[in-house]
Amino acid sequence: MAQFNQAISRRDVLAAGAVACGVLGAHRRLIAAPSEQVVVDVQELREVHVDPAGEPGDRHSCEILIVGGGLGGIAAAIAATDAGRNVLLVEETSWLGGQATSQGVSALDENGWIETSGGTRSYLSFRKAIREWYRRNARLKPGAARKEHLNPGNGWVSRLCFEPKAALAVIDDLLAPATARNRLHVLKRCKAYAVRMEGDRVAAVDFINLDSRDRFRVTAQYVIDATELGDLLALGAAEFVTGAESRQETDEPHAPDESDPEDVQSFTYPFAIEFRPSTGSGPGPSTGSGLGPGERHSASQPADYEKNLKAQPYSLDISRQTGRPPYAMFTTRQGTYGPFWTYRRLIDASQFDDPKYPNDIAMINWPGNDFRGGNILSGAPSQQIALLRAAKNLSLGLLWWLQHEVERDEGGRGYPEFKLRSDVMGSADGLSKFPYIRESRRLRAVKTIVEQEITTAGPRAVHFDDSVGIGLYSIDIHETTRTRRVALKPARPFQIPLGALIPRRTPNLLAGCKNIGTTHITNGCYRLHPIEWAIGEAAGETASLCIERGRRPKDILADKELLRTLQRRLVVRGAPIMWYDDLPVGDPRFDKLQMLPFESPELMAKMQADLHAAGLTPGR
CB of 314 within 8 A of CB of 368? Predict the structure, then answer.
């Protein structure tokens, strides 16, 4: 890490940063940095005390500092190093990959066109590489091996369901070229505890190694906050908002009458279980009926089980507010989409001829383990840990309920054949290393995306001239902490405006994942895997262009030529900025058709005719 070891003078940074708690205006207050700081080690569920004596001894510098190694952070690192920049990527858990790995959601939430459209080239390469990992590392049956769009788990909620370890290996391979060229350095198990500001600029970020307790300071020309909870925002890097905005603030049709910064979406600790029937006990879960008794496994009944059983409640209902019947375990009940078991199944054993995969493995991420008992975006570290522990007990309670009390398809109660696979999540308790976060702190951005812009009556959402990416997903709001609101509303194919990544004041900071300028409502569709990747990729490319040209992100917004340069660079690297249902990134017309609405708006009418003649369709 020689190039990251340039010393900086104390006069280059402020003596102390401000710690932001809450949000802007009625939602935000600033307090002085305490004499002793405490950070939460989420993976190990403990408080880590930062020694208040002195400043960090180790000093590192880089061109771009990316804080957070989730999908947004990974995409930002790839884009920035491809552009020739010197990057330091810092992640608090022991696994890179965020939603797809450390948060356990390795059944990707995507759009219906993802195999051809709606994702960047690098994201599609990530997906393809996961499929190839199984072809290289597992013995597939011939029919499965021949599938171009292999889905290892055949889960019905996603076109690609897999074990987190597959994504971990692929991410390492994707980052290897930049690491080999010495453009990228990755530090894991390190967390930011202070942001040092010089005026409105981020001058430095201080980190602590959560295991060794060693501290270090990083200076960078640009900083990208790609953390799962918007950590740098909470440390004073920029103004932010949490929870639900009022209708008066956003004019959104479905916003509540009054704002509530504590009303955030539930978060979840997913876990993986294997179905282990006895040999010769009858058909397995893939055949859907006649299950005989199998192996007997039993987790310990966790604390608060009886309370959660009644209050959550544990059930196979997808939502108490849909009116749909409960799901059956291995069969498809009328009025449901499929069996509960195959909802987010990661391994469909019927596709494998491999002793490593004798049985199905499913990941459980269900309303029954969505924790809505409190907001981890606020409160003291001890309070946050108490909430995280309660959320773990909620998930472990669902596991116990599945093993002992759920109604079996053929009658009786409980499936003791379900074995917790702690190795899948890489943790001692079998739960994901980090909870699956649906709603983080959100940047007070130059542009805030609101509900009415993505639910228009036309074929697409409102067009943003500063688009740096695209996405499509319903407004999916899981039960919230205060009002218990649930929402599932369709959205139109939408764009990611550059202004949503840019803070109102901090000139060298960009948002790199679900912490962009959305509202509580629009966050519900901008938070998913391919969209977070697209956000990170745009942030990495934007920071790179700013360094190259000596300009700021706001300058790019204000300068049409610079903005088009950024958009062309994104398009050339295979990042769509305009939605087409059937324009793959490999199509020879991709670059031209992507840029046409931005470079030649007067030709939009002609483009519509050309697309019709070519058999292509814009939007849905």
Answer: yes
Q: Strand 215-225 and strand 58-67: pairing? A: parallel
Residue 302 lies in domain = 270-425
Phi, psi values for residue 413, rounded to 5°: -130, 140
What residues contact residue 212 under an 8 Å CB cut-off, 6+ apart? none
* Domain assignment present for 295: yes
CA distance 323 to 312: 17
Interatomic CA distance for residues 49 and 515, integer angstroms = 26
Please write down the long-range contacts of 483-487, taking CB distance under 8 Å and 24 or more positions apart: 483/244, 483/256, 483/260, 483/263, 484/372, 485/244, 485/256, 485/263, 486/319, 486/321, 487/254, 487/521, 487/524
Check which CATH number belongs to the domain holding 508 and give it: 3.50.50.60
Give the list of residues 6+ apart from residue 267 with CB closer than 8 angstroms, or none.
370, 371, 376, 391, 435, 436, 437, 438, 439
Give the per-residue pLDDT at 601. 74
Contact status, residue 173 vs residue 129, Cβ threshold 8 Å: yes
CA angle 305, 307, 309 (to 5 degrees): 65
Q: Are residues 65 and 212 in the same domain?
A: yes
- pLDDT value at position 53? 82
How many residues comprise the chain?
620
Q: What stretches in the chain show pLDDT beneath 50? A: 1-34, 280-292, 620
Q: Are residues 182 and 101 in the same domain?
A: yes
Q: Are residues 217 and 308 in the same domain?
A: no
Q: What would you report as the CA-atom Rg of the chain, rounded to the nearest whole angstrom?
A: 24
76 and 222 co-located in one domain: yes
**What whole-number distance in Å separates Cα of residue 567 and Cα of residue 101?**
30
Closest residue by Cα to residue 88 from 444, 543, 552: 543
52 and 13, same domain (yes or no): yes
Q: Are residues 136 and 35 in the same domain?
A: yes
Task: Decide: helix, strand or coil at residue 233.
Answer: helix
CB 351, CB 360: distance < 8 Å? no
Question: Which residue spans within 179-239 are E strands per DSSP?
Answer: 184-188, 190-198, 201-209, 215-225
What are the pLDDT digits (tens) for 513-570? 999 999 999 999 999 999 999 999 999 999 999 999 999 999 999 999 999 999 999 9
Q: What is the pLDDT of residue 1?
A: 40
Q: What is the pLDDT of residue 321?
A: 53
Residue 136 lies in a domain: yes
How many structural domains compose the chain?
A: 2
Tell me which residue of 63, 129, 67, 127 sits closest to 96, measured CA to CA: 67
